[in-house]
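dumping this here before i forget
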Amino acid sequence: MKKLVLLLSLALPALLNAQNRQATETVAATIKPVQNIEIADGERAFSKGTFASYQFTIPQAYLKDVSKDWQKYIKSGSKNKPVEANGETSMLGAVNKNVSGSTFDIYSTLVETTDGVRLTAWLVGPDSVYISKAVTTDRDLAAQKYLHDFAVQEYKDAVSRELKQQQDGLKALEDNLKEFIKEEEKSNQKIKENERSIDRQKNAITASLNDQKNKADQIGAQKKVVEQQKAISEDAAKDAAKVQKGYEKELKQLEKNHEKLSKEIDKWEADIREEGRNIEKSKQNQRLKNDSIEKQKLVIKAVEEKLAAIK
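structure:
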């Protein structure tokens, strides 16, 4: 037996660690992995013709959000405003010192896909030449960084929204858990109240039994009085008999009240059993909810790690 206990004590930590790893892996599988922002250059067609361009996808993003942020991004530092026409967004006189010492133009299209938002951009330098690797490496790298910075920020925003949703989900679970705990406390309080009522009722029953005994003694004594009065006169015996009947009626009322007191105890005891079942159900719900909370915490941790890994 000692060997068995020793083996179990050695195996238990490994088993728990294995279960934790399995739970973590299961949760991680539900979270989309980090996707690298890859910018692909190449010639693509748009309203001005077919020219060098850059294309990339922002994972988990929505067109409405990206479109709004993109217009704000390309407008930064410029006196002009972006213009939307025929599915294209153009920004004449964009400003970014890394891309160009003077203003440059940007043409772009945004399309929502199953993976996120695909953005295609054509950047035209002050010399009216479309920026690309083939034209100038430095300007190409600066343009790619300009676009990459935007993509990373949008991706982070999307994952931040995902994190917020998961955190809201955790709060909802914790609120549910609090409700189950309140239900348990409410049931415990009701049990205590019923137990106190039962104690008071038992005292009342004891007093009732004493009253019944005293009344029975009165009846017994009055019967003797009736017998004694019969020897004196019929009228006196009748009066004594009336008193006896009054005592007997009072005894019946005491017995009736006693039965009522006992039935009330039965009801409270039934309520206690019902609340006991409610407590067990609440405890089970708490166990399940705690399990869900721990899993949700793992989800949040995975999303936090995902957010930190976006570069």
